[in-house]
Specification:
This is PH domain-containing protein. There is one protein chain. This protein is α+β, with helices and mostly antiparallel strands and 201 residues long. The protein is built from five helices and six strands; from the N terminus they run H-H-E-E-E-E-H-E-E-H-H. Helix 1 runs antiparallel to helix 2.
């Protein structure tokens, strides 16, 4: 269980992203090896090989720098009313999800996540415009099932309220309201008096 009102960094997020990068490197090297075996690599122009190799080196070099930089900025916090998530290497972003808007809390653990002994907690809300994805994901944590229960405990402890985008219909006056009933009764009495005067005449 994570302490509340304190920011925490996912302890396995860096390893998780580096594992994805390692898989990408293996895939690229496999493709290059296949091209070399079939002779397609030797048939390419030298400038094509130079440009392609440079792009790959720059791409993987950037990822190697970006992963730890992003992992240092990714932080979560559980408060009395909401879940908060802030991150961003170049541009800082913050996502806030109130507990009373949460509709579902699920967990996920893929092969790479199992490899680094971590998982993800997906927080779903009443989405807008048919939104189906998670509003917020707590990724790269080892205690993902405990975090799921912690969030669910907060959600169950408070009643649900209408979310943004719901139509709130104000109650309108009907014929049964006291004011209209009094007016209707007065009209009936006046009509009865007119009818009685007509009979007497």
């Amino acid at each position: 269980m994570r302490p509340e009102h304190e920011w925490f960094t996912p302890e396995q997020l860096r390893r998780y992203y580096f594992a994805y990068e390692a898989v990408a490197v293996v895939v690229v090297l496999s493709v290059v090896g296949l091209l070399a075996v079939t002779g397609a690599l030797a048939a390419m122009h030298p400038w094509v090989l130079a440009v392609g190799g440079g792009v790959l080196l720059l791409g993987f070099g950037y990822l190697t720098w970006w992963v730890p930089a992003f992992a240092r900025t990714a932080e979560y916090r559980f408060t009395d009313d909401e879940v908060e998530y802030r991150r961003g290497v170049f541009f800082r972003q913050q996502t806030t999800v109130p507990y009373n808007r949460i509709t579902n809390v699920g967990t996920a653990q893929g092969p790479i996540q199992r490899l680094v002994k971590s998982g993800a907690v997906k927080v779903h809300t009443a989405g807008f415009g048919g939104q189906t994805g998670a509003e917020l994901t707590v990724d790269g944590v080892t205690d993902f099932q405990e975090i799921q229960e912690q969030i669910l405990g907060r959600v169950r402890a408070r009643p649900g309220t209408a979310t943004e985008g719901d139509d709130v219909v104000e109650p309108t006056a009907t014929a049964d309201s006291p004011d209209e009933s009094t007016e209707l009764l007065g009209e009936i009495r006046r009509i009865r008096e007119l009818l009685e005067h007509g009979r007497q005449a």
